[in-house]
Amino acid sequence: MAGPLPVTEWQRPVIAPSLLSADPLNIGGSVDLLRDEYDWLHLDVMDGHFVPNLSYGPSLVSACRRKWPEAVLDIHLMVEQPESFIEPFAAAGATVLTIHQEATPHLHRALQTIRDLGCSPGVTVNPATPVDLLKPVLGLVDLVLVMSVNPGFGGQVFIPETLEKARLLCCWREAFGHRFLVEMDGGLGPGNVRLASEAGCDVIVAGSSIFNTPEPSETVREIRARALEGACCD
């Protein structure tokens, strides 16, 4: 099992390709095409209830941990009753486990369980959910994920109104001395990633905009360069 995320050690921006858009018959080959240009690997877990789609289970996380033992595996649980999923995904080798505020009435307990199991706790909200609802747990998490599309499918169009959530989170982080990273996921690519970076996002998740290009490694480099331009404007 990987240890918790060293949140203070990462150089921003962090680029986390989403394996939801990788070739499902050759995920390892898709990652090889990135040629080590990525920082983290992002895996979306969907149960067909919280979101209208199904995806990976703990066995894929275990396989990724065996193949890439030093990788940061960033696991996004888009599931109802996430408490039932935390232990198997932690045991499989997750580095970060992110759960939805909307999915559990016991958010504090679930986040503490993630940390107790040796993973970094993350929390997220859907685009229409006010980010203010996360204020009570911001001191407990290592990562806050801002969903910039409605979760469940790759290749969706970016929702620009979500940028304000990232700005608010960065203001609160500075004001209250929190240490969490701000991550954004959904509809991001070379054409708009600068906006996310300018809003203060530390971690950029991109799937189809990377894997559906002829040279994914070059696309990751381009996304990083555009994100760095935005970070320089902070």
Please give a structural write-up:
It contains eight helices and eight strands; from the N terminus they run βαβαβαβαββαβαβαα. With 234 residues, it is α/β, with parallel strands linked by helices. Strands 1-8-7-6-5-4-3-2 form an eight-stranded parallel sheet. It is globular, with a radius of gyration of 16 Å.
Key features of this structure:
alpha/beta, 18% strand, TIM Barrel, 234 residues, single chain, eight-stranded parallel beta sheet, 32% helix, 8 helices
Could you outline the blueprint of secondary structure elements for this entry?
Blueprint: E1 14-17, H1 27-32, E2 40-46, H2 58-67, E3 72-78, H3 83-92, E4 96-100, H4 107-116, E5 120-125, E6 143-147, H5 163-176, E7 181-185, H6 193-198, E8 203-206, H7 208-211, H8 216-231
Parallel strand pairs: 1-8, 2-3, 3-4, 4-5, 5-6, 6-7, 7-8
Helix pairs in contact: 2-3
Mean pLDDT: 93
**What is the rounded Rg?**
16 Å
Strand order of the largest sheet: 1-8-7-6-5-4-3-2
CATH architecture: Alpha-Beta Barrel
Summarize the structure.
With 234 residues, the protein is an alpha/beta fold. 32% of the residues lie in helices and 18% in strands.
